[in-house]
Amino acid sequence: MKQPLLLLILVLLHATSLVHAQGKQSTPPPPTVTPAPVAPASAAPPPVTQAVEGKLDNIIGKIENNERLDTKLDGIINRLDSSDRVASKLDSILSALKDHELKLEKISTTPVASVVPVMAAPTAATVPAPAAPAPPSSGDASLVQLNVNDVWIVVTAAMVFFMQAGFVMLEIGACRAKNTINIVMKSFLDFCICAIVFLLVGFAFMFGKSWHGVIGTDSFWLSSFPGDHRVWVFWFFQVGFAGVSCTIMSGAVAERTKFLGYLMYCALFTALIYPVIGHWAWGSFGGAFGVGDGTKGWLEALGFVDYAGSSVVHACGGSCALAGILAVGPRAGRFGPDGSPRLIAGHNIPLVTLGVFLLWFGWFGFNAGSSLSGASMIGRLVVNTTISPSAAGIAAMISMWFIQGKPDVNIAMNGALGGAVAITACCGNVTPGAAIIIGAFGGIITTVATIALERWKIDDAVGAVPVHLACGWWGTLCVALFDEKGFSIERLGVQALGTLSISAYSFVVCMLVFAFIKFCVRIRATDEEQINGLDFTEHAANAYPDFQTTEQA
Predict the structure, then answer these.
(1) 460 phi/psi in degrees, rounded to 5
(2) CA atoms of 347 and 485, how far apart (whole Å)
(3) Chain centre to alpha carbon of residue 378
(4) Beta-bridge partners for 524
(5) What letter does residue 522 receive in the DSSP assignment?
(6) Residues with Cβ within 8 Å of residue 5, at least 6 apart in sequence
(7) pLDDT over threshold 60, residue 475
(8) Read out DSSP for 13-57?
(9) Residue 327's Cα: distance from chain center in Å?
(10) DSSP 8-state symbol, 199
(11) Which residues make beta-bridge pairs with 341?
(12) What distances in angstroms separate CA 177 from CA 263, 352, 408, 531, one per listed residue?
């Protein structure tokens, strides 16, 4: 490929010199002057030709001896070789130049006597060579990559959206049949409310022009952007994350929460909690998509890293789930009069398994889509997102097997989800080997946290707090602990500060939100309503009409 480029340079220089030389001879000679005698074929080339050839040899020598130029030419060649379209156009250019070179050589070897009449004929001398097609500019390749990135973001955002189905299936299976419709309604409506509120105010608070790195202040409603602007792609991706963080609460307070109170929580969460902490960690990300001023949030400015949201999405949602559990209280009958825990088994374990697989599938879009680019880096992201949950599921199963003497299916499933949460923050800067360790500890943390909550009489219906809060903390710290570039105690301190700040803000504000909801409406279902099932008391319906699903005939 380098030889055609040199050929191109030589031909252009040669053509220039010939035109210059012929321009000096273009004036017609006086009529009395006889044509010069024909030079024999073996005669030496004219002095002008020798001078041009000497200059060309000098240029070639400089090119060959200049390693820096040679390296740059190699880089240009590699980039051109990577595009079939560019290569085909270059081939057509070189083909046309070779034909033109033959014409120039024929002119340069023609005797002087025969050249003069030809030059005097305007019809022969002024005919230009056919123009070769211009190669595409580098902007075309950049535009193609930009479009590929946008398509990649939309596809992965759709995968994140599909995680809502996973949450629904997992929560339905882990709870009793008499609350199925209530769970479906909550998980469906929370995303609907989240999408509207995020469009109106949440996205602006998260990615708008920064106020001291704390909150965004513009781009409300996104009404000023044209239809072909890239901000719409970015918004679609981000609303999926907001929906995931919001719906974490649903499973934690399942089977005893009033429907209206939960919907009020969803609106306030999307407006006041998630976008604020999102601005702290990701506030500058909107700048690449034409929204905000690119100013970093205060945590981001300190160097806090949360690649896909172990803290921003999961620890935030887990902290709110813990606040909701404390505000609503345990399910009726979950703990005995003496405080001893009582098992309330889910009615469909296969649905739990399906939900876990759906969530795991969505997690590939969750983590790999956070690259915001359809580049080769997505390969290791999906590998880490495969390895960590796998190791976590095995570790959780073994740890519970060791504790109670039997492997527990729910713990194994939640352990895998804990491993997915743990790798979310650090999937971009750790190796797959480190992902095994991160996932294994995530599975053990999930098991230990589940047992601890039960002993503290905290009723988490689906294990949302151990999975999302505990493993969210662990994954955020792993950004510094397992960084492939080396451990840094300063970075570990920043990571700890970030995850604790996000969790504390989410917990405190959520407690205030529930206090406000309690002031407005009743948030907890009565014991009688819980016994009859929320499907009947809240929606006057039955998900399984052919079966008795309540505890009363």
Answers:
(1) -105, 110
(2) 47
(3) 8
(4) 257
(5) -
(6) 73, 76, 77
(7) yes
(8) HHHHHHHHHHHHT-SPPPTTSPPPPPPPTTSPPPHHHHHHHHHHH
(9) 35
(10) I
(11) 335
(12) 22, 13, 21, 12
Element (H, E) at 273: none
Question: Do the Cβ atoms of 548 and 527 come closer than 8 Å?
Answer: no
Q: Which residue, 111, 289, 308, is CA-closest to 208? A: 289
Tokens of 331: 């399910």
Q: Residue 139, SS3?
A: helix
Long-range CB pairs of 217-225, under 8 A, 24+ apart, other chains included: 218/292, 219/286, 219/291, 219/292, 222/291, 225/290, 225/291
Residues 6+ apart with CB under 8 A from 477: 492, 495, 496, 499
Render pLDDT for 209-253 as a digit per residue (tens, 0 to 9): 999 999 999 999 998 899 999 999 999 999 999 999 999 999 999
Q: Give the predicted TM-score (pTM) of the model.
A: 0.75
**Tens digit of each residue's pLDDT (9 = 90 or more) over 432-472:** 999 999 999 999 999 999 999 999 999 999 999 999 999 99
Half-sphere exposure of 67 (CA within 13 A, CB side): 0
539's CB contacts (< 8 A; 6+ apart) are 181, 182, 185, 259
